[in-house]
Model the fold of this input.
Amino acid sequence: MTTKSAAAAARATVYGYPRQGPRRELKKAIEGYWAGRVTADALGDASAELRHANWRRLADAGIHEVPTGDFSLYDHVLDTSVMVGAIPARHRAAVEADALDGYFAMARGTRDVAPLELTKWFDTNYHYLVPELGPDTTFSANSVKQVAEFAEATALGLTARPVLVGPLTFLLSAKPAPGVAADFRPLTLLDRLLPVYAEVLADLRAAGAEWVQLDEPALVQDRSFAELNATARAYRDLGGRTDRPRLLVASYFDRLGEALPILAKAPIEGLALDFTGAAAANLDALAAVGGLPGKRLVAGVVDGRNVWINDLGKSLTVLGTLLGLADRVDVAASCSLLHVPLDADVEHDIDPQIARWLAFARQKTAEVVTLARGLGQGTDTIAAHLAANRADLAARNASALTHDPAVRARVAAVTEADGRRDQPYPERAAAQRTRLGLPLLPTTTIGSFPQTAELRTARADLRAGRIDDAAYEERIENEIREVVSFQEKAGIDVLVHGEPERNDMVQYFAEQLTGYVATRHGWVQSYGTRYVRPPILAGDVSRPEPMTVRWTSFARSLTDRPVKGMLTGPVTMLAWSFVRDDQPLGVTARQVALALRDEVRDVEAAGSSVIQVDEPALRETLPLRATDHPRYLAWATEAFRLTTSGVRAATQIHTHMCYAEFGDIVRAIDDLDADVISLEAARSHMRVATELAAHGYPREAGPGVYDIHSPRIPGTDEVVGLLREALAAIPAERLWVNPDCGLKTRDWPEVRASLENLVAAAREVRTTLPGPLS
Done:
């Protein structure tokens, strides 16, 4: 095909779309089902309505091929586990009794059965449910969901492309099942899994699918020779089948690297590549392998993970270069639009100047369509779009909203000494033991307590003007009193104020810092029915006034026990926001760290002896390629130390991390120089404790003993067992007892019972330890 005809054939598509609906209708329907207010049929109807609305919206916008199968009631990886029959033994009876309830049991657990482990999807803030596999795992095809949703789309008269998690990514994202040797490699099951994928593909072909997309983001990571050989074998096998649709293998989030020549030569019909950010290197790599002659290339040139408008002219240049490298070039976002909010046009409270720079899922869809039209029909057909886009980009670059000379001068003046505590850890630990007087195995929580309907109503009433500031603050004070009183009665050693005033651990701070923009409707799925509104980092960051001192000090006035001051750390403030793309992340991190440093000093000056600076996103933001790790970890750990290093030796600095692969960053955790770290461990079977021990981690740690992402209430015996596992790796004098994460998503009855069991377990284990108990 000539370059001209390849351009004329250009089409617009996306890999996936936000699931929740304009008003989070999916969340409400699912949670209504859990509560017994919504029937299974009504939930199915609501889900179908949302899917159909998404597809129609995409088609009306000009998307030529809509994705199906990306819609999920909880998680697309869990959907894949169901598709291939990878049901853990402990959940099989529930799944066989009722497929829907069994599905949710795998996601959330039940009173008696633990759920699947939850962890981050590559370097995003989306959490997936980790498949559990072992040498005895058998697979079986269940393509009901995939075929049904494809049929729904085609019944609407739409051209559809089913999207599946690819077999390599499914296996490489899995872990050994409980009781299976830790060194078991799920990839050894590939030959057992491929026939099941082949059966699903055949079912989709029989349903009329011309193309099926197999997502393989795992291939953008560093992969061993054996893993690359497995990739070649997998796509030689699937591509060699005759009873199948045409295959489009998609990668995203980074450059494809060593897997690119393998997939370019594989007997598949198409390849989808990311050409944004670090993945822009895919352009040169594709040219180096001789392109994709005779194949379809789907070019992800619109950033699917951030909210800034696309540089249409730059993207057209990339697309023009790609025309000579493939038989057909289509235009897409770089990844599923699941990772961005739905519609920027409904954000009426954002400064109109900034609003011009933003593109959410609907706007990104329009950009994809515009680029496809410009590529296929010539730039004259989109001249007005190009002119408006150039003007918006220039306005952003020149805007005073993005530059604060005072902030930049302060960042430039930072020295290495500013990021180090004055005293080594042993001296600090001795001073803190004297000041705090805590027992062995001190108990605490991570920070938040349940966000009740009354609290949400109070915030809504304040926004609507139904109550004034004084009435709102009275409600917050009453909630803090209840939280502090409960913790004292339960016997918790280091208290928290419960964070009733906070809507979200990032948004709360963003709304009080300069440079950030908050949205009203910018919801993004974090996991299941948990949605967050990531703020937007549009300009330089500073802290005009104290943000947390008021409420921490009030809590301290109610008790003689230590109360932790609670802040969100600089890396998490970036990771859970939509960050600037016009300066290096390390520069932005320093700005945020200096603003938080001011807050830490004020919290300490107000009398707090313990200050927690949470960094749950430290691992999540780790680049996908090892060669990029050192530079990231250098600025990330420096930013944390810059935030926390201005306090006295006797002030204990805590940090918290959850739902990530901590073994990859143990050295970086050490480099944070926090006095105490709490980490998720309950779902991952206390693995992090052994990882810390193997590294020789010298400070105090609290591997979580209560999984807060499940409604299960852990019994005292269960917590005792976890503590004994932890003590095998961490000495008692350095072990804390705490939940995995904050408690805001749980109900009060669950929290009360679980924390009482946690305290009882700590007391029971203390009695078995040598030496004094305090």
Remarks:
- The first strand starts at residue 66 and ends at 68.
- The first helix runs from residue 3 to 8.
- The mean pLDDT is 95.
- The chain has 29 helices and 20 strands.
